[in-house]
Task: structure prediction
Amino acid sequence: MSGRRFLGLAILLLVLLPFVPLLLWSVSEQWFYPGLLPQKFGLRSWSYIFSTASSQIAGGLVQSIGLSGVTTCLSLLIGIPAGRALGLYSFAGKRLIALLLLLPVIVPPLCVSMGLHLWFIRLGLAETFFGVVLVHLSFCLPYTIFVLWGVFADYNPEFEEQARCLGAGRLQTLVRVTLPFIFPGLCLAALFSFLLSWSQYLSTLIIGGGKLLTLPILLFSLMDSGDRPVAAAVSLLFVLPALLVLLANGRLLGRQGLSGVR
Amino acid sequence: MFQPLPESPAQAGTAPGRLRLLMLLGPALAIILLFFGGGIFLGILQALGYRPGAGGGSLSLSHFAAVFTDPDFSTSLLMTLYIATVSTLAAALCSLPLALLLTRLAATSSWINVILQIPLTVPHLVIGICISLLLSPAGLVSRLLSWSGLIAGPAAFPLLVNDTWSVGILLSYIWKEIPFITFMLVAILKNSGQELEEAAQTLGASPWQRFRHVTLPLLAPNLRGACLIVFAFSFGAFELPFLLGKTFPMVLPVWAYRNYSDVDLMARPEGIAIGLIIAAVVICAILLSQGLTRMTSRQGTAR
Amino acid sequence: MGILELEALNVGYGSRAIVRELHLEVAQGEMVALLGPSGGGKTSILKTIAGLLPPLSGTIRINGQMVNQVAAEKREVVLIFQKPLLFPFLDVGENIGFGLRMQGIHGARAAREIAEMAELTGLGGLERRKIQQLSGGQQQRVALARGLVLRPSLLLLDEPLSNLDPDLRQQMRELIQAVCRQTRTTTLFVSHDQSEALMLSDRVALLLGGSIRQLGTPRELFYRPADREVAAFFGCSNLLEGVIMDRHFSCAGLPLALPLPSTQPSAQVEGKRCIVAIRPEQIELAGGGADTLTARVESLSFEGALTRLEVRLGSCRLTVLSPHPGPSPGSDVQLAIPASAIHVLPCP
Result:
């Protein structure tokens, strides 16, 4: 076996191994120790998700997608100009500004959420969708800026000047020149932001106050209830969108891929 | 750690007007200052005893003092440090050879890269559930051993989840962080690793010397940056220890949230104080690492 | 009235002027070169004319209209950068048609104009190619076609040949000349390479130290430099200081007075201290005779078609470029300096 194939198989095995019990539990109806496989296979957990508790699970899915989607859009909208300023220009105080903008990458969201909570209650932002978006934005935006800084450091703004000379207005230049150039980096930044917001538990719980039932919050309560097959099925549902995006974007993102996503 | 890329040569040195800079950076700065800076600032105020709803109150360090004098604080801190440090070091030690192997064998293989990216997309919560289904006393591994006759039953299986040494937590973090660190290293190796090694080889460097004096220094900044991010994350993360950890000693983030969500509202400032201590430790770790780097690099130039 | 008129134009960034008090007029169909050493602000002049950089002061007129306040995309000016800057996500045809598309020109009309311009620039049949599949010369031609297809009033070229290999430069030069002539496009280009400027342009403006030092035909600048810096820029290193008496130039180091060319009006220079410039390739190595000067060869270097000799003549040192492979260092040679080789620099 070639070294490359061996390496590939080893990686494949180690990456996929943890999912084996998840898959098995999600299709089991009876699985007593020490059975290596479930004594009884069945789709009870899936039918529970898609019929009995479908409104709750679907609600969580919608809530999660909406939250991560809005957070991602906002962080791109705000992050693109900031990334451009950091990537293209040198100016006084740049190091300080960069430090400030990227500090939330290392400070855990836990502290920020706890600090903001009382203030958000008084502003009426606690337990609202928008309030949670704002908290998520405080740590998704820095990652977006970090990626786009790198994107714009490799970007040649002379292309925009060339387009202007060829008769393109500001909007046309943005749509026809700038966006196509930064598109792969933009996708990567969007993915960063989406995944970060998607897997967020504690900050959603604190600011959302249990009113905003995203998938991770539902999953935690399912784990507490001890229904393993259903928890396993919801876990799979929780991983699926990100996994699909990864596979779909494999070509879009090129070799850079997701490197750097946490 | 925040400047991985050089400025584009075409533009380095050009300075746009202040107004334009403000337009570009203003919204981002506003969001970060308001919601991140504001969160930290209000957190500090509340941890110092300020109560917005209850007529203010005087500021004091009593909540911090209460945390520091708590007999469980030091065990908790050590536990958190242990988990963050060991998982970071182990992930880095696995990532280094993996990155070297990947660039040498499979830099162009897209399927291996896609597989390795899967852990990046998996939320910590889910890998926690996976590890628990895999390694708990009644988990799949235990079943395998029992089925093959190596152990008698769940009781004979070593405790790997909710255990003293936090094996389950460590394994989850390592599984999740190896790809992150590896890709940070591969990014560097793909650009210049091969050529520089070849140059060193023609200058008579042995394989070990090439690794020690060429590859490792080349990777050092990214390795350090990636490790710091991983350390900071695992030091302040809640999900995995909550799911897979022992009830005592609690790691700091779990302790902070327990206090914060306590029915007794008086425990809340203490929870926030613990949160701030977590942030302080993380920032200290980064300053320390930067200080050490500066010292070693100064020594290097002096020599 | 010219296509382009620059009046007292100051060009620079922020408050710092790189080029001061620029006056220039370019006529319809003319090809003018802005020649000067690298880093002299030539590209900034083009960007200012194109509208990408606001002028610090002065006026820019295009077709008689003051355009200082007109946005880059609304000026009928196309700037072609030094690098081809082709959009990698568009193919050759789409790149050429980019400007048409911006004007809302689609379909058959756009396709016809793109095909026409591709044909003209030697890119016929390559319209569906990807940019990455083109050679450097082809990319440069796409950039040219992309600009010309818009039929701009004024075409600005930034160092059009400098990115090309020597054999491609010749091809590209001929192409630019032919295409611009055929489309009657008025062109202003900048270059740091004197041969590029002399070959391509109808007139040359030499930019030294942030201002135009001399403006004229290539021959004027080459053979009749306005001052010693212009002379030196074009490689005329033989600058002798002396007195003009009786239509002859004499200088302390020279054993013989040199007759002035008949074209030199004598009234302004007679009896004055002057500097004369003698182009090194116009000094001839002669067999001997009455009007020749004996000089000692100090060093020589073979440069291919010509051989460069450094000779000492009395107390003067001269550079001679001769087609003869030449004598050896240390030997004596006879020099003949024809009257036509002598150019008296305007007296200060």
